[in-house]
């Protein structure tokens, strides 16, 4: 609003005009104002060449109503501006609107809910624990530095999250991401976050069919069947299977008018009055295509599910009709694409006051929606994955070991306490951690690729760290000795060369003499 007014006041030529034998200084004709403003809007990046002369006249009517301009007699407040030779001028007072004030405290960080304090009566027995599987090499590396008793540790127990907690996480992280994408210091400039329904976000993210369309829990809020049939007929033209082909000329125009009349009767636009400023702020990002896509993805996720579903079906129909070369023309003077924008932009986006740049802004946004509806009206996968990972992290039991890498600058949380080695081993047995340790021990014992010396060393380390697990596998020394059969000591071979001396004759000695 302010940008267009400033450009118009700076670019509109002012000169002397005569009317009924009287001269008026620094004024302009209505037709000259239409020419000037139409050219300015066409060259502006937020509007572009799609702006028509008729839309420019409607904007000048808004200018006259809001005292941006006045006639030469100082009259204003009505929307009776016409594209003719009447004379107008700029008022001496500034018509600019004040900008929303930003908070002075700097950037606002949306806080996440705190579930560190366990509620009374909350049970910790059913918190899922994922067993860690290690092979022998990983286990050996982990224990190669300090072999001995298990060090003291801290068990961090998490309170079980309720559905309400998860919904609040979705709301907090979604709004935080939206604020970052829009580049705002605070969402208070464009949105009252207290009015954002966290249940709507979760329903829009998970209650979808194979085509990505929202499925409603309350069936009474569905579109009437006859409207759905009419929209399906035009969206799939001319290959609609559930309706007979038209038997008269102009059938598709009558169906289209029926749909336009239905959506034109809605009391509130599909993007709602509450989110008007959010969607208008996205228009500044249209030059950055990927940023605009993500901002609209997140913004549409905030809508009530029934609004989101109607928006998905309507924009999909509009896009299919616009890109269907076989579709018969719906108007003699306007292209099918422009007709789609003109017919439905107001039921998609408008402000509650019915003023300012509503029509032009809505046309710009709806055109972008039509060109990128498949991406914009899908659930943002990156946001969904990050939130799901955060929820899993909050539900996971954590074990923190005391050591040199422990951060001692922060006091320990109130939800954990230090336990002894015996208590830790008891917790390990209670959570079923002996199974992966037993599997690891079996892997060490049956591994034939390591030497006997290394195997004995690793088994000794394991026995020292987990004596109970080791005792179950090797209850007696004999069961352990099976792994290392003793080799039989062979006697050295007899020196056969001593037996193979040549035979020597018998020599008679004196002792044999008589």
Automatic annotation (TrEMBL):
<feature type="domain" description="Rho-GAP">
    <location>
        <begin position="185"/>
        <end position="377"/>
    </location>
</feature>
<dbReference type="InterPro" id="IPR000591">
    <property type="entry name" value="DEP_dom"/>
</dbReference>
<dbReference type="InterPro" id="IPR036388">
    <property type="entry name" value="WH-like_DNA-bd_sf"/>
</dbReference>
<dbReference type="Pfam" id="PF00610">
    <property type="entry name" value="DEP"/>
</dbReference>
<keyword id="KW-0343">GTPase activation</keyword>
<dbReference type="InterPro" id="IPR000198">
    <property type="entry name" value="RhoGAP_dom"/>
</dbReference>
<dbReference type="InterPro" id="IPR008936">
    <property type="entry name" value="Rho_GTPase_activation_prot"/>
</dbReference>
<dbReference type="Pfam" id="PF00620">
    <property type="entry name" value="RhoGAP"/>
</dbReference>
<dbReference type="InterPro" id="IPR036390">
    <property type="entry name" value="WH_DNA-bd_sf"/>
</dbReference>
<dbReference type="GO" id="GO:0035556">
    <property type="term" value="P:intracellular signal transduction"/>
</dbReference>
<dbReference type="GO" id="GO:0005096">
    <property type="term" value="F:GTPase activator activity"/>
</dbReference>
<dbReference type="GO" id="GO:0030177">
    <property type="term" value="P:positive regulation of Wnt signaling pathway"/>
</dbReference>
<protein>
    <recommendedName>
        <fullName>DEP domain-containing protein 1B</fullName>
    </recommendedName>
</protein>
């Amino acid at each position: 609003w302010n940008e267009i007014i400033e450009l118009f006041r700076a670019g509109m030529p002012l000169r002397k005009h005569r009317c009924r034998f009287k001269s008026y200084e620094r004024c302009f004709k209505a037709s000259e104002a239409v020419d000037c403003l139409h050219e300015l809007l066409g060259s502006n990046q937020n509007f572009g060449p799609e702006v028509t002369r008729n839309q420019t006249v409607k904007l000048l009517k808004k200018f006259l109503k809001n005292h941006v301009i006045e006639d030469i007699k100082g009259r204003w407040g009505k929307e009776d501006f016409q594209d003719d030779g009447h004379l107008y001028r700029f008022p001496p007072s500034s018509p600019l609107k004040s900008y929303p004030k930003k908070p002075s405290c700097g950037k606002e960080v949306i806080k996440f809910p705190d579930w560190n304090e366990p509620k009374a009566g909350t049970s910790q027995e059913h918190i899922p624990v994922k067993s860690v599987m290690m092979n022998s090499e990983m286990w050996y590396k982990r224990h190669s530095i300090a072999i001995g008793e298990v060090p003291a540790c801290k068990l961090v127990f998490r309170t079980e999250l309720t559905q309400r907690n998860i919904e609040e996480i979705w709301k907090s992280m979604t709004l935080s991401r939206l604020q970052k994408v829009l580049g705002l210091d605070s969402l208070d400039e464009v949105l009252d976050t207290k009015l954002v329904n966290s249940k709507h976000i979760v329903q829009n993210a998970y209650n979808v069919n194979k085509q990505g369309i929202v499925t409603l829990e309350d069936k009474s809020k569905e579109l009437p069947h006859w409207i759905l049939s009419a929209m399906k007929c035009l969206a799939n033209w001319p290959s609609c299977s559930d309706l007979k082909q038209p038997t008269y000329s102009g059938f598709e125009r009558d169906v289209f008018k029926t749909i336009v009349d239905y959506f034109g009767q809605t009391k509130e636009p599909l993007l709602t009055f509450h989110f008007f400023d959010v969607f208008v702020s996205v228009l500044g990002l249209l030059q950055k295509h990927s940023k605009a896509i993500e901002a609209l993805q997140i913004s549409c996720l905030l809508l009530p599910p029934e609004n989101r579903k109607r928006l998905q079906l309507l924009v999909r129909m509009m896009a299919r009709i616009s890109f269907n070369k076989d579709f018969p023309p719906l108007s003699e003077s306007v292209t099918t694409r422009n007709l789609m924008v003109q017919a439905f932009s107001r039921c998609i986006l408008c402000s509650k006051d019915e003023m300012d740049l509503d029509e032009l802004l809505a046309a710009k946004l709806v055109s972008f929606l039509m060109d990128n509806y498949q991406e914009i009206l899908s659930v943002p996968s990156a946001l969904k994955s990050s939130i799901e990972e955060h929820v899993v992290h909050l539900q996971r039991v954590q074990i923190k070991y005391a050591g040199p890498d422990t951060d001692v600058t922060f006091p320990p949380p109130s939800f954990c306490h230090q336990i002894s080695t015996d208590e830790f081993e008891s917790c390990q047995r209670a959570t079923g951690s002996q199974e992966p340790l037993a599997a690891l021990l079996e892997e060490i014992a049956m591994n034939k690729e390591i030497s006997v010396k290394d195997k004995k060393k690793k088994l000794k380390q394991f026995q020292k760290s987990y004596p109970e697990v080791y005792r179950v596998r090797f209850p007696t020394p004999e069961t352990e000795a099976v792994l290392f059969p003793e080799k039989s000591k062979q006697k050295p071979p007899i020196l056969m060369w001593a037996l193979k001396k040549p035979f020597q004759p018998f020599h008679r000695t004196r002792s044999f003499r008589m």
